[in-house]
């Protein structure tokens, strides 16, 4: 059984783990902020004329939790990375059009991803687990948005919104986050982590 399938890493935090969570959180926070600036003009194009379909753009905001969980592989890492990224995007110069509600989004998105890594006892980190983490983060955020932003939508619209969001979570945050982690590993920047020392890629 590969090291990707069964992790024997110590679940206690090292200083480098905490520094990496903070670094990833800040880096993704800037990405989240920039994507927020692009979101409205992109979501208004004809492709997204069906309002719930704009949720397909949401996967970018779920990347931090998935990548943080895949790299750090310890309890709370996915949640902390996602929440820090959301916080940074809220307090960076100009903030976002959603104001401080992004703190709540970071909480729900991070919790969704974290629960999947917990489900596998922090021992599996392949593309399937990454995709599931992205999907769960999206589902948690979608339901939160039903009540905070789209309370006037009928249930059919809400289900469509959930479907588009989960698809984006799987493809962008899950598969994309897994590919990004593998790219970091191949570049040698993760040599201090199990994700950078694996010789095989779990699928």
UniProtKB/TrEMBL annotation:
Coiled-coil residue windows: none
Superkingdom per UniProt: Bacteria
Keywords: Membrane, Transmembrane, Transmembrane helix
Residue spans crossing the bilayer: 16-35, 55-72, 79-96, 102-122, 129-147, 159-180
Protein name per UniProt: ABC transporter permease
Originating organism: Aeromicrobium piscarium
């Amino acid at each position: 059984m590969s090291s990707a399938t069964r992790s024997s890493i110590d679940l206690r935090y090292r200083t480098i783990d905490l520094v990496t969570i903070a670094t990833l959180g800040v880096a993704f926070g800037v990405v989240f902020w920039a994507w927020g600036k692009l979101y409205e003009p992109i979501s208004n194009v004809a492709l997204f004329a069906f309002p719930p379909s704009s949720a397909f753009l949401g996967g970018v905001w779920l990347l931090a939790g998935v990548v943080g969980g895949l790299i750090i592989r310890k309890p709370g890492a996915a949640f902390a990375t996602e929440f820090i990224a959301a916080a940074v995007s809220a307090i960076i110069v100009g903030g976002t059009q959603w104001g401080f509600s992004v703190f709540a989004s970071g909480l729900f998105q991070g919790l969704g991803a974290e629960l999947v890594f917990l489900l596998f006892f922090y021992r599996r980190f392949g593309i399937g687990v990454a995709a599931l983490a992205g999907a769960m983060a999206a589902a948690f955020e979608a339901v939160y948005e039903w009540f905070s932003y789209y309370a006037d939508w009928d249930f059919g619209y809400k289900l469509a919104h959930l479907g588009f969001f989960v698809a984006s979570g799987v493809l962008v945050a899950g598969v994309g986050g897994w590919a990004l982690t593998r790219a970091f590993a191949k570049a040698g920047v993760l040599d201090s982590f199990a994700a950078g020392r694996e010789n095989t890629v779990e699928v």
